[in-house]
Amino acid sequence: MASSVLNNVFNVFCRDSSAYFATIGFVTASYIAFKAAFNVIKILKFLVFAGSTNFKKLGSWAVVTGSTDGIGKAYAKELAKRGVNIVLISRSEAKLQEVANEIEKESKVQTRIIVADFSKGLELYDSIRDQLAGLEIGTLVNNVGMHYPFPNYFLDVTDREELFMKLINVNVTAVTMMTSIVMPAMVERKKGAVINISSIGGLHPMPLITVYSACKAYVTFFSRCIQSEYESKGIICQCVVPHFVVTNMTMPFLVTTKRSEKRIPSLFRPSPTTYAKAALDSVGVSDFTNGYWAHSVQAAAVGMLPEGVIKMMSVGFMEKTRKANLENMSKKKE
Ligand SMILES: NC(=O)c1ccc[n+]([C@@H]2O[C@H](COP(=O)([O-])OP(=O)(O)OC[C@H]3O[C@@H](n4cnc5c(N)ncnc54)[C@H](OP(=O)(O)O)[C@@H]3O)[C@@H](O)[C@H]2O)c1
Question: What CATH superfamily is the domain 55-333?
């Protein structure tokens, strides 16, 4: 008697649980298929409509922060090629003048330079506001960014409080203040593009570069909220989320890569020029983008993974990079 009851319970459980697992399997598979289809549509939309924004029509000037090197310099040059006058902002007057000369020679547009150290905080913005007054600014590229010297645990970072304040000033205060200075005239003219450079670290929490990751999460949320608030007023606010691009900033993260290969662009690690061109083509097409198709493919693949797996992979990479940087530093001391 008891054994037949147990038998019945076992049969019902098996029947019900197999239906239960089949349902979970179906829902999971549908979810993955839906996400994959959504990402494919995004990539196709990018390929079809790429390059449709006329930056000159948005305004005759573009402002690019952090524009003497890397991605910012490439954005400045590419915007100039599209016929827009350029305001370059960075710390070094000599480098600014050099880039301004290159741009004027290559693209026959006007340039202006503003010397500013964004790590200093609020004190510099009155001067920037004065120097930008009267220009018809159609595009603002909030590119300037600052990273850790190398990945490290929060409490182990050398001179951490000073470094963290600088990181916040360069990565967070600059994007907020520059948007506050430039966007009012765009809203008055009912057109303009604000392009904010975030990072993969601003989408997924990245331990060992904690403050950078948190700052970039701010940039991501800031951009998406501004887009919602001002889209109806004619403003495009685009959040750009690059993965690896070959620049000075990425060098400490490539310590485990062969020296000869570090500076060589590849499919998934493009040059700043390749990256900026593709990313500018996406303005007006997508307000939240990886900017470059191979990075979109990478992001789609990473997005399929559970957050726990992403964290594990990220910690593994950062730990390895931290160790390699520390070893290099101790070798140099010897
Ligand atoms: N490269 C990547 O793989 C990657 C990935 C994700 C996100 N990003 C983001 O992309 C943006 C550009 O990065 P990047 O790799 O092109 O950097 P980069 O090659 O190091 O160039 C940084 C630029 O910013 C300027 N700059 C740095 N600190 C500054 C400060 N305190 N005040 C004013 N200007 C300053 C530098 O010029 P001076 O030294 O002359 O001032 C230089 O022109 C950053 O927001 C970064 O977080 C980059």
Answer: NAD(P)-binding Rossmann-like Domain (3.40.50.720)
- Positive or negative torsion for Cα 198, 203, 205, 207: negative
Q: At what angle do helices 174-189 and 125-132 cross, to 10 degrees?
A: 30
Cα angle: 223, vertex 212, 93; to 5 degrees: 85
Q: Which residue has the tokens 């409490």?
A: 155
Residue 3 has pLDDT above 70, yes or no: no
CA 259 – CA 257 distance, rounded (Å): 6
Mutate to test the pocket of ligand 1, among 63, 65, 69, 269 (most ligand atoms within 8 A of CB): 69
Evaluate if residue 5 carries a pLDDT over 70: no
What is the best residue among 120, 247, 273, 274 to mutate for testing ligand 1's pocket, by most ligand atoms within 8 Å of CB?
247
H-helix or E-strand spanning residue 86? strand 85-90
For 78, 179, 232, 300, 332, the CA distances from 227, given in Å and listed in that order, are: 23, 12, 9, 22, 47
| Residue 212 annotated among the catalytic residues of the structure | yes
Q: Out of 75, 125, 148, 212, which one is annotated catalytic?
A: 212
Using the mean position of ligand 1's atoms as its centre, give its distance from the Cα of residue 85 in Å.
21
Q: Would you say residue 222 has pLDDT above 90?
A: yes
Residue 14: pLDDT band (50, 70, 90) is low
pLDDT bin (cut points 50, 70, 90) of residue 9 is low
